[in-house]
Structure formats: C-alpha cells, structure tokens
Amino acid sequence: MCNQVQNKRTPTAIALALGILMVTFATPALAAAPPVSVIATSVSGSNVYVTVRNNTLLPQIRTVGVQVVLGDTAVWSYAPVTLLPFQTATVRAGFVGTVSAVISCGMSDDGNPM
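Predicted structure:
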C-alpha cells in the first residue's frame, strides 16, 4: 500500500513543481527603473540645471539633452555626465539667452537624447 501511495505522490509533486515554475516564469516582469533617471530640473537665467541619478550598481556614462525656448526658437543643449553606482549629480546645460521654458529633458548613452 505504501508503494502505491508514493507512486501517485511523485508524479503529482513533479507536476505541481513544474506548474509553479511555469507560472513564475510566464508572468510578465515588472518594469524596472531606467539605469539613469532625471529627478528634477530648474531654470536660472540662461542655465538649466538637471539632477540625475544612477539606479544601478555599475558606473554610467550618459548625455543629458535639454530642449528649451529662447525667444521664439526651440534650442537644444547637451551635457555629458558620468555617474558612479547610485550617485546623484546635477548637470548644467548653458544657453546664450534667457530661458523662458523647458520643453523636454532626457538622456541617452549614444549622444542622441531620448
């Protein structure tokens, strides 16, 4: 009798374990934070200060791109940034005139923002 019960439990246990593994790996993963994220921006005259944070355990090298309005024209400025693991830094993007509005701010690792 004991042998017959064990014979039924083994395939059931294997099927249950495989089912749990399938459900675990088949579910979509939650979206992870980007490696480097923009925390804040602020404008002071002709400068835009962008605070960025490295969210990984690896050093990151990125280019921060800021698009602003100068008069009636949209203008881009780029600033490189190197961050150690979990470091937060503020990058300055300078312009030739007074910034009236920030249109967009983003970063990339290939020199082309966003």
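Summary: The chain is about 20% helix and 45% strand.
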